[in-house]
Automatic annotation (TrEMBL):
Residues 57-179 form the MPN domain. It comes from the Bacteria. GO terms for biological process: proteolysis. GO terms for molecular function: metal ion binding; metallopeptidase activity. This is DNA repair protein RadC. Keywords: Hydrolase, Metal-binding, Metalloprotease, Protease, Zinc. SUPFAM superfamilies: JAB1/MPN domain (SSF102712). The keyword Membrane does not apply. It holds the Pfam family RadC. Gene3D superfamilies: Cytidine Deaminase, domain 2. NCBIfam families: radc.
Amino acid sequence: MTHTSAAVLPADSRYSPSNAPQLFVRDSDGNYLAAPDDRVIDAARQVVERSVSKGMKLNTPNRVREFLWLKLAGYDHEVFGAIFMDTQHRVIEFSELFHGTLDSASVYPREVVKAALHHNAGAVIFTHNHPSGEPDPSDADRRITQRLKEALGLIEVRVLDHIVVGGSDSVSFAERGYL
């Protein structure tokens, strides 16, 4: 059984990819073991959850991107989610709304509207990942974003952005002028 204690220990005093610093966890006997990547990602997600909490303003594009990258990193299938916010753009909740396959996820505007009403949201930022690592939005991504924007507009919920995460990069619909 392992505990959450962690340390970064260099494998050698000279840096190379083969001896890069490694994150270790301590087991119940006090021995340090190399932490598996999925455990590191899960721990990073927990840190992100604490750093972006209910009521917090996501007021910089970099903060939003870091948050979403950590939320979606490591998935081998598409995940479509939303950050629901109040009218002052303070976080209400992040929700993973739909899970798909390697290269697509079905997104249903009716379910997104229900979720926005459930959270009493005034604004939303959509996100999804591209497991291929290529963050450029597809035509289908642009079409569903427009449909969601129209549907949410009927209930006065603003769509602030849609960010596609791919690999270590991301693309913002707002920055590209797609919204």
